[in-house]
């Protein structure tokens, strides 16, 4: 459900963009001026019946996000149930943020920023402090908020990596469905050639979305990726997505294989892959940050997909990523359904977590 995603002329850049949620106050979420990659301004719901209809699915997403982050958010919210703003409150908040896997650096940054905001606002109520924490967290996460751009190159080649079990192939399937629904011609590369289940799973998603897939049993993953890029160019695909085998960053010889895939894709098309996405499991907390650092050093990541945020008490890891390795988070997921993968908004996330 990418509200403003639509097919553009091939010479122009398209972008997966979504309508921002209606803010609590008019100034809470500023509306940027339309750019070449922005297809429609954010409109007040009262201005148009169509706008109101478009807003409804996003509200449903916000409800699911808030529900998914409940375990993380409830432990932080308990800090603000008292009546005083004192050192004890900040100490409790520090403990809650660390337990949520925000990490030491992000936790200290948020505490310092929050104390500054409290002083400037002359806040005297813990609930007012909680709302100031929403602002502090939203500002910290803002650098992660960026749309996934497709269309600057034809085809746009996306290489997707991650460890087994992170939800990599499922995320590719969901993204493919959304792209296909937005009239983008997608071609999938089943470059996890040694795991039959991965090829079969990707094949199911290809059938559902009615897109083409390049697959080869037991072949070389780099060769499959090479063939897929060439096939994408020949068949006029808008996007080629390569699903690679799950790799732990400690498996150095297997990480070298991912580097090889990236090099070979570059030989098939100059400048490709245009996007290198890492899918990480939000349940893994600080380990997710470790994966981000390792895969980024090896491959030069351009974006992240953070999955399985529902049911975890470690949703604070996005703060750690923002402070220590601010790679854009293109999508976050809170469930298995198609609509449970959505574009990331810093303020939406902060509100869902803390309000």
From TrEMBL:
Reactions accelerated catalytically: GTP + H2O = GDP + phosphate + H(+)
Binding residues annotated for GTP, in chain numbering: 162-169, 243-247, 307-310
Entry's EC annotation: 3.6.5.4
Protein name: Signal recognition particle receptor FtsY
Family annotation (InterPro entries): AAA+_ATPase (IPR003593), P-loop_NTPase (IPR027417), Signal_recog_particl_SRP54_hlx (IPR013822), SR_rcpt_FtsY (IPR004390), SRP/SRP_N (IPR036225), SRP54_GTPase_dom (IPR000897), SRP54_N_sf (IPR042101)
Classification via SUPFAM superfamilies: Domain of the SRP/SRP receptor G-proteins (SSF47364), P-loop containing nucleoside triphosphate hydrolases (SSF52540)
Alphabetical keyword list: Cell membrane, Cytoplasm, GTP-binding, Hydrolase, Membrane, Nucleotide-binding, Receptor
Main location: membrane
Organism of derivation: Roseateles paludis
Enzyme class label: hydrolase
Cellular localization per UniProt: Cell membrane; Cytoplasm
Topology in membrane: Peripheral membrane protein
Assembly behavior: Part of the signal recognition particle protein translocation system, which is composed of SRP and FtsY. SRP is a ribonucleoprotein composed of Ffh and a 4.5S RNA molecule.
